[in-house]
Design brief:
Rossmann fold; 2 domains; NAD(P)-bd_dom_sf; nucleotide binding; 9 helices; Gfo/Idh/MocA-like oxidoreductase N-terminal domain-containing protein; Gfo/Idh/MocA_Oxidoreductases
Length: about 300
């Protein structure tokens, strides 16, 4: 750990707590900021009694000793917090998506470049051990189609498309580039906005990506099936499989690492080497543009 890695955590909800725990063993957490919920204050006092807490984000931004911030707040707050952090000369890790406006996303990316600051967006699956293994396996193959299925229950506080589909789009783009056609078809909005939907993407190579996302399911299941000219691969949970007709699937690899650990390690590495991470502003801007263009109502 470098002594200069002084990070502030902004947002201590469910995922913010995970980020706090993971970054706290990799850097010095100088300050924690949240909206003032008393239960959160009590939890922080119990779990992290040595770390100062504020309810005023200006205290984070104006603290010149803090060199980086980790933002895990509601999606609609991302762009303003990222902008202020960059303007205050801080490196930024922000949960996905960067924002919901592609013009603003590009402006934030350009601001980070102008300030020579790291801007990393939390597309965690791109750092998954099995995703990296899968890319190695198919590096010499021509992809024909990719099928995403994601079933879970909740949470409902964010738009389902901006909260979940962005992950799948980021993965498809990582394999196939920039789509020429993108469509999103909402199915159900029951407990939240866009609780179930399908999407499709077409790429210059002719490859297509399809997905079904349902956050009203009693089943928890997230799979990615990739078909090439010669093979079919299935990533499900902690296993990467090769699937063949009338044969038992062959296990290619099983994950032994925690994706969030790998993601946070990547941010720390970017702080040290001053090189943009794979989930940088440009990558995040493309995802935002695809979603915004495919379904402007979101």
């Amino acid at each position: 750990m470098h002594s200069k890695d002084k990070i502030a955590i902004i947002g201590v909800g469910r995922w913010g707590k995970n980020l706090l725990k993971t970054f706290s063993v990799r850097a010095e957490i100088s300050l924690i900021c949240h909206t003032g919920d008393s239960a959160t204050d009590e939890w922080l006092k119990s779990e992290y009694p040595h770390i100062p807490v504020t309810h005023n984000v200006d205290e984070v931004m104006e603290n010149v000793d803090i060199s980086a911030v980790c933002i895990a707040t509601p999606i609609h707050t991302h762009s303003s917090l990222v902008r202020v952090a960059l303007e205050h000369e801080k490196d930024v890790f922000v949960e996905k998506p960067l924002c919901q406006d592609p013009v603003e996303a590009m402006a934030l990316t350009e601001l980070a470049q102008q300030k020579n600051k790291i801007l990393m967006v939390g597309y965690i699956y791109l750092y998954h051990e099995l995703w990296q293994k899968l890319k190695t396996e198919i590096a010499q193959e021509q992809i024909q189609n990719v099928l995403f299925t994601w079933e879970k229950y909740g949470s409902f506080h964010e738009d389902g498309i901006w909260n979940l589909a962005v992950h799948e789009v980021s993965l498809a783009n990582d394999l196939l580039g920039t789509p020429t056609v993108a469509q999103i078809h909402p199915l159900i909005s029951t407990l939240g906005t866009h609780d179930a939907y399908t999407f499709s993407l077409e790429y210059p190579s002719g490859a297509k990506a399809f997905g079904l996302v349902n956050r009203l399911s009693s089943v928890t299941k997230h799979t990615i099936t990739i078909t090439t000219q010669t093979q079919t691969y299935l990533w499900e949970g902690n296993r990467l499989l090769r699937v063949e007709k009338e044969k038992e699937p062959t296990i290619i690899a099983e994950s032994t690492t925690v994706p969030l650990d790998r993601e946070c390690d990547a941010f720390i590495e970017s702080l040290h080497c001053r090189k943009a991470p794979i989930t940088n502003g440009a990558q995040a801007t493309l995802v935002t543009k695809i979603i915004a263009d495919a379904f402007p109502q979101t």
